[in-house]
Write a structure and sequence with these properties.
about 500 residues, TIM Barrel, about 15% strand, 22 strands, 4-stranded mixed beta sheet
């Protein structure tokens, strides 16, 4: 398989070396950092929080749904408490795997089990590149990021359209972002804006148009991936709760991801933060099931720590990596898929950005994370979407994908005859075995430069970040819009125009 992947890399429309689009399966056993007994401590303490403290939900619709399934709802405070037996019962019959159907069927992916899906960054207000520096995101930047996301095969999913176009009205900019996702890319996608029921419904309606299905068709074949963050500690605002309900009723997968930063929004320990994360995640999953039993509601991880000297979020830390792996254990205990992230707090694309992202990515791989959000382009703790960082991340992810490919131990690959031909003290450069594999024997990088210092210097002595700058520009130059039926695109544009008029009138 590895050799076939590498050989296929040369079949491309772009001049940039990259792997073909392909699902990634993790063949290794997941790492476990805590024992089964310790995992039960986290689980049982989470249930104690839900029973004795509860969570607040500022949504009347959510409160009604939770009341109907037997939760203890205090209408005066919007506080909801859950009996442990109710939580345990509501965790049954949730799909452990599901499929996200892309506009291009060849880019449909499965979520769950040992599948690993990479999605690009979602949510930054700022964008950066070497040419123009850090700046407020624009419509052009956002559209360019979606084009790059569509062009890089290592990304299975358009994770959130990169930066927000801040020059557009905040009430309607989600429509422009989703229009870009549905027309400039043919991969599955996730909306950035899941903070009101109306915006969640816009996403659902645009997915129906893009995939040309009705409500039942979208429910049978989910086409979008939603996600909400809780307002830690122990709070769901009305918009987030209502968005969960909309997606669950539409049969669309939604991950519940508490925003727990140890020392700020959760206890100043990873153990305590994991307990709180788990309580909040379970409460959100129960809400999704209360809205529609059997809907694909799943587990989300985002626990990290803050710098206790400044209060700033820290990402890609050892503590973050630990929380990823333990969260993977919790998700497997509940037989649910799990989402986590590739993160860094670095303000620029440098060695810090690389080693923090590498720490995050490795933890996601070792912890058997199913959906890696922000896998490409995340910078500055998620405040910035970086074009060079997108390319650096693509390199890191391609290396992981190659690492996860099986080693070919066939007789032909081993090359016993070549070993016999060379014998003692020779070299293999000119053997038939080597020449047959000359161009695709090993991983071919996007960015890495394996020449010696003298030839590297003669060719301009460009750093990896400078080469990344050249790569994303080349990809944009080579970009070809994926095929889309003009009638579908017109219908999407008409929906966006109609909704803008309704919202802004």
């Amino acid at each position: 398989m590895s050799r076939n992947i590498r050989r296929a890399r040369r079949v491309k429309s772009s001049t940039i070396q990259q792997m073909p689009f392909a699902e990634i399966r993790n063949p290794f056993k997941p790492m476990e950092l805590v024992s089964s007994d310790q995992l039960e401590v986290i689980h049982n303490t989470s249930l104690k929080i839900l029973r004795d403290i509860g969570v607040r939900l500022d949504s009347m619709v959510a409160l009604d749904l939770l009341k109907k399934i037997g939760a203890d709802v205090n209408r005066a405070t919007n506080q909801v408490k859950f009996d442990p037996a109710l939580v345990e019962e509501m965790l049954t019959d949730i799909p452990s795997e599901f499929t996200i159907h892309a506009r291009n069927p060849e880019k449909t992916v499965k979520i769950g089990g040992n599948a690993l899906t990479f999605a690009t960054v979602c949510g930054p207000s700022f964008v950066s590149d070497l040419d123009r520096g850090r700046r407020a995101g624009t419509l052009e930047d956002m559209r360019n990021f979606v084009k790059l996301s569509a062009s890089l095969n290592i990304f299975h999913h358009e994770g959130g359209s990169g930066c927000e176009p801040l020059e557009l009205p905040p009430e309607t900019r989600h429509l422009d972002m989703m229009l870009a996702q549905t027309t400039l890319s043919d991969k599955g996608w996730q909306p950035c804006w899941m903070n009101t029921a109306a915006r969640a419904r816009d996403c659902i309606e645009m997915a129906k148009i893009a995939l040309q299905v009705d409500d039942d068709g979208l429910r049978r074949n989910p086409g979008i991936l939603g996600g909400v963050n809780t307002n830690s500690p122990l709070l769901f605002d009305d918009g987030q709760a209502d968005a969960v309900i909309e997606f669950s009723r539409a049969g669309q997968p939604v991950h519940i991801t508490p925003f727990t930063l140890a020392g700020a929004m959760s206890p100043a320990s990873i153990g305590g933060s994991l307990v709180q994360q788990n309580a909040e995640a379970l409460a959100g999953i129960v809400l999704g099931q209360a809205a529609c039993r059997g809907s694909p509601t799943f587990y989300g991880h985002f626990t990290s720590n803050v710098d206790m000297k400044t209060g700033s979020p820290a990402f890609g830390t050892p503590e973050y990596a630990q929380s990823v792996i333990v969260s993977g254990q919790l998700a497997r205990r509940y037989k649910l898929p799990i989402r986590s992230s590739n993160t860094t707090a670095a303000p620029t694309v440098d060695a810090q950005a690389a080693y923090e992202s590498d720490m995050s990515i490795n933890a996601c791989v070792q912890g058997h994370i199913n959906v890696m959000m922000h896998a490409g382009g995340w910078l500055e703790g998620g405040l910035t979407c970086s074009f060079e960082k997108l390319i650096l991340d693509a390199e890191l992810l391609q290396m992981q994908a190659a690492f996860l490919s099986p080693i070919d131990l066939s007789e032909d690959a081993i090359g016993f005859d070549a070993i016999a031909e060379v014998g003692v003290g020779g070299h293999f450069f000119g053997t038939k075995h080597t020449l047959e594999r000359y161009k695709d024997a090993f991983y071919q990088p996007i960015l890495s430069d394996w020449r010696n210092f003298e030839t590297w210097q003669e060719d301009g002595a460009k750093t990896a970040t400078q080469r990344a700058n050249q790569v994303w520009k080349q990809l944009l130059h080579d970009y070809e819009k994926p095929e889309i039926d003009p009638a579908i695109e017109e219908e999407l544009e008409a929906y966006v125009a109609k909704r803008k008029e309704e919202i802004l009138k």
